[in-house]
């Protein structure tokens, strides 16, 4: 929320009250409580007719210090809450004439006494960031709504990453980011997956513990500060320390949840029917058999929306005219060695047979007058399942259980972003605004929990679009509705790298783009990128994505890179164990893997696939790649996995590649093809 008008003024209609200093403090068991009035109190009369912020400092785990800033204390029993793994760590609270020091593990917060606010964070004595003058504030906006605001200093050369799957620039400095899930495609500042967590190249992270509409100004209101705010009367955030960015991610995912292991078969190629295309069992077999005839290994076949009757999404019943024998069809696909994925969402069209049942039993989000909340965006008269109602969750799961019994192996959990906030009521009384982002967590958890129950934890996997904090526990996620062109391919990669810097371990995207018909050139270049991602799926809107529709060379490229990924599966399995144990993403930004090489801090057109493989996708029709080989200080060259050519570290290169090659470099001293 921007409220400043230059350095000294405040925007018209806004009122700002800054915490002036620490007036007094109390110490409870493992909690430091500070009282910060809006003016420095110099005589007893100044304690009258003025407010203050109560600041509570605690620690949920070692190396994490949590600050809760409170204006008025209010009841939050109806607010959805992120599940956090607290361990009640030992903390040390010390006071001397200069101020207080709160220490958890290797992270310390030093709070100064005197006539100014000064909160400084250090990790093993190394300064990280600080909240100083005009840092903590209560801001009333031009609509009369209160917000609690915090500002942390940005150092010279400091860069910020993360905040979910964002399609804007990878380095977030200069951006304003609103944490609000939206179905906006991949070409705007909107995002399907919003996570109020960022990391700094100075080796720390900040997590704002709120499901509400958190707003971040990363050097975009005051250029030397990261400012964040939440509506209401309090704000809770945690500073997370670490030796490096990997250590920060490990500690953050200790707190919010580690990505689980995914089935080995999920690393293979997934093929979709696409969204609005016509298809039946004959079409499915033509696709599956066509891949086999062309010697292209396929792992999963995905049935998108139209496996159900039109205008009835979702009824969870196979369209009889196209699929008269679903059990037999699924069994035959299994006999061909394939797994089966089916598209679903949490919306129930009025024409669906399930609408009356769900409405009568109170399983949908309601209006304040008790009627079912409905609208026509997406499906005519659709309702939304209320996952705060345990009976509604069990009902929804029962419909999916039948599909699993029929032979479906996993689900694509589409949507979950367009969740209403005005004039609606949830079963458990949750605040509708704070449920907007949180809804996706309940939705994906309900489906994932069922898969664990029926298939087992080692076989459970989703293909999800929306997410928030904790969603990393219910993988895999894909990048949403991209367009079939190079800018969209590049923005998809930027988003995936930001997503990985936000605690999510696995990520995919629609190979060759979702919207529009790709050119053969785009199809082949995106195929290279897609089959060198953690998870790989062909999908589209109105166009089939089988390779023979894009020429003989597209078939060859798909075959070669699908087989390459097949050879890499043991390596990918090894990397997935690392993801599960540490929270590190399988597709890593260069700065995450090489934090001591400053050139890597800004790179968003290449990435590391696990520890040992550097991938630089090609983003132009000329076949030209410009890529950087990182310098680890050893001086040893990297080698292209496909061509054998070697490259000295610490240099940029520009080369031209045919469709069978691209920069796929192997880290010195490693052999990912022979794990």
From TrEMBL:
Residues 259-573 form the Glycoside hydrolase family 31 TIM barrel domain. Its EC number is 3.2.1.177. Residues 54-217 form the Glycoside hydrolase family 31 N-terminal domain. Keywords: Glycosidase, Hydrolase. It catalyses: Hydrolysis of terminal, non-reducing alpha-D-xylose residues with release of alpha-D-xylose. It comes from the Bacteria. GO terms for molecular function: alpha-D-xyloside xylohydrolase; carbohydrate binding. Residues 583-670 form the Glycosyl hydrolase family 31 C-terminal domain. One of its GO terms (biological process) is carbohydrate metabolic process. Gene3D superfamilies: Glycosidases, glycosyl hydrolase (family 31), Golgi alpha-mannosidase II. InterPro entries: Alpha-glycosidase_related, Gal_mutarotase_sf_dom, GH, Glyco_hydro_31_C, Glyco_hydro_31_N_dom, Glyco_hydro_31_TIM, Glyco_hydro_b. NCBIfam families: PRK10658.1. Belongs to the glycosyl hydrolase 31 family. This is alpha-D-xyloside xylohydrolase. It comes from Bifidobacterium mellis. The gene is aglL.
């Amino acid at each position: 929320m921007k409220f400043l008008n230059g350095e000294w003024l405040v925007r018209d209609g806004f009122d700002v009250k800054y915490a002036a200093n620490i007036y007094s403090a109390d110490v409870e068991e493992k909690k430091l409580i500070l009282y910060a009035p809006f003016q420095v109190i110099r005589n007893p009369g100044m304690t009258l007719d003025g407010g203050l912020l109560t600041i509570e400092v605690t620690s949920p785990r070692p190396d994490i210090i949590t600050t809760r800033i409170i204006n008025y204390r209010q009841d939050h029993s109806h607010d959805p809450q992120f599940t956090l793994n607290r361990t009640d760590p030992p903390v040390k609270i010390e006071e001397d004439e200069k101020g207080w020091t709160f220490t958890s593990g290797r992270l310390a917060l030093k709070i100064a006494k005197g006539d100014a606010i000064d909160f400084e964070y250090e990790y093993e004595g190394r300064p990280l960031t600080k909240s100083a003058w005009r840092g903590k504030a209560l801001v009333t906006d031009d609509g009369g709504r209160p917000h609690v605001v915090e500002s942390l200093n940005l150092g010279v050369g400091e860069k910020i990453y993360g905040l979910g799957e964002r399609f804007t620039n990878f380095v977030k400095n200069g951006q304003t980011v609103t944490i609000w899930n939206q179905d906006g495609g991949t070409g705007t500042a909107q995002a399907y997956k919003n996570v109020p967590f960022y990391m700094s190249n100075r080796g720390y992270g900040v997590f704002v513990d709120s499901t509400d509409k958190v707003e971040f100004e990363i050097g975009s209101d005051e250029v030397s500060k990261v400012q964040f705010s939440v509506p209401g009367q309090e704000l809770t955030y945690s500073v997370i320390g670490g030796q490096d960015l990997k250590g920060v991610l490990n500690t953050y995912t200790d707190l919010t949840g580690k990505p689980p292991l995914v089935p080995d078969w999920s690393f293979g190629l997934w093929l979709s029917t696409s969204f609005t295309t016509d298809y039946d069992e004959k079409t499915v077999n033509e696709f599956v058999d066509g891949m086999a005839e062309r010697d292209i290994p396929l792992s999963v076949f995905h049935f998108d929306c139209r496996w159900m009757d039109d205008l009835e999404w979702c009824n969870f019943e196979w369209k009889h005219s196209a699929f008269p024998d679903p059990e037999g069809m699924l069994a035959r696909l299994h006999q061909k060695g394939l797994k089966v994925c089916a598209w679903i969402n949490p919306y129930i069209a009025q024409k669906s047979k399930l609408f009356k049942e769900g409405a009568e039993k109170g399983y949908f989000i309601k209006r304040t007058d008790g009627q079912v909340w409905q609208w026509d965006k997406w499906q005519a008269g659709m309702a939304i399942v209320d996952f705060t109602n345990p009976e509604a969750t069990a009902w929804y799961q029962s419909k999916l259980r039948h599909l699993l019994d029929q032979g479906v192996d996993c689900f694509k959990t589409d949507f979950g972003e367009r969740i209403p906030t005005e004039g609606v009521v949830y079963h458990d009384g949750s605040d509708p605004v704070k449920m907007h982002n949180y809804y996706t967590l309940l939705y994906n958890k309900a489906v994932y929990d069922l898969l664990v129950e029926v298939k087992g934890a080692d076989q459970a996997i989703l293909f999800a679009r929306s997410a928030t904090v904790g969603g990393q526990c219910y993988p895999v996620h894909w990048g949403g509705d991209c367009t079939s062109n190079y800018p969209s391919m590049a923005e998809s990669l930027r988003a995936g790298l930001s997503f990985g810097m936000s605690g999510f371990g696995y990520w995919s995207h629609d190979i060759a783009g979702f919207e529009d018909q790709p050119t053969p050139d785009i199809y082949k270049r995106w195929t290279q990128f897609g089959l060198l991602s953690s998870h790989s799926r062909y999908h589209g809107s109105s166009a089939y994505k089988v390779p023979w529709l894009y020429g003989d060379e597209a078939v060859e490229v798909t075959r070669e890179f699908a087989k390459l990924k097949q050879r890499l599966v043991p390596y990918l399995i090894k990397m997935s164990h690392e993801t599960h144990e540490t929270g590190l993403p399988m597709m890593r930004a260069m700065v995450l893997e090489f934090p001591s090489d400053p050139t890597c801090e800004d790179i968003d057109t290449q990435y590391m696939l696990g520890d040992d493989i550097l991938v630089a996708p090609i983003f132009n029709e000329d076949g030209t790649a410009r890529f950087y080989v990182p310098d680890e200080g050893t001086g040893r060259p990297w080698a292209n996995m496909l061509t054998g050519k070697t490259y000295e570290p610490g240099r940029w290169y520009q080369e031209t590649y045919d469709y069978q090659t691209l920069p796929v470099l192997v880290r010195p001293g490693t052999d990912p093809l022979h794990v």
